[in-house]
Specification:
8-stranded mixed β-sheet, 8 helices, 210 residues
Length: 210
């Protein structure tokens, strides 16, 4: 199952890599808001990892404030696009690489902050990703995990069903309260939780490793 999952995810996101940034333009105000919220937690002493970093939209925006930033994604094509964008800048403290968020290959307790933006709801086993993140976070390290709550009400569930037809399937259709409970049941303590309104509400959650 693991290899099948990896290949399925790689193939899907590889196909979207070249057009991903144009798709994100449709929700650019939301991303700008997210980046602003994330930057409040970052300073020059922080080593940061973004899992499922895609084309590096967030990673590239936060690098200037951080010490070191790593971005990893299961899709080689997404990483290629991110590196193409990086090569056009003068940023020196970013490294993009191909990795599976379920099995992160970094030293234990090596990051002050891990970002998992808009990804937990599309994972088959998000618990595995949180467990993997837990290992690489330093004691009292912070996980920032903005997540769309597809199960908040009948309307969001309907929109989610339409999205799944074109391939953007939410395996986890949490309500806002269910997502809050999920994060705290995986050895993380919530230190900030706020909602960005939209057709599907986005829970901006910041947690501390306990």
């Amino acid at each position: 199952m693991s290899k099948d999952r990896q290949n399925k995810e790689k193939n899907f996101w590889d196909n979207y890599a070249k057009k991903y940034d144009s798709l994100i333009q449709k929700i650019k105000p939301t991303y700008n808001l997210l980046i602003g919220y994330i930057l409040e937690y970052i300073d020059s002493s922080k080593d940061v990892l973004e899992i499922a970093s895609g084309t590096g939209i967030i990673t590239l925006e936060i690098a200037e404030k951080a010490n070191k930033v790593y971005g990893c994604d299961i899709s080689p094509e997404m990483v290629n696009v991110a590196n193409e964008k990086l090569n056009k800048t003068k940023i020196k403290n970013i490294k993009f690489e191909v990795q599976d968020a379920y099995e992160l290959d970094y030293m234990e307790e090596s990051f002050d902050i891990v970002i998992a933006s808009n990804v937990l709801h599309i994972m088959i086993n998000p618990e595995r990703a949180l467990s993997s993140v837990y290992k690489v976070l330093k004691p009292n390290g912070i996980l920032i995990a903005p997540t769309y709550c597809h199960g908040e009400n009948l309307i969001t569930r309907f929109i989610s069903s339409l999205m799944s037809i074109v391939g953007f399937k939410a395996y986890q259709k949490w309500s806002i309260s269910e997502f809050e409970n999920f994060t705290e049941s995986n050895k993380y303590k919530i230190i900030e939780f706020k909602i960005i309104k939209g057709k599907i509400p986005l829970a901006f959650v910041v947690t501390k490793k306990i």
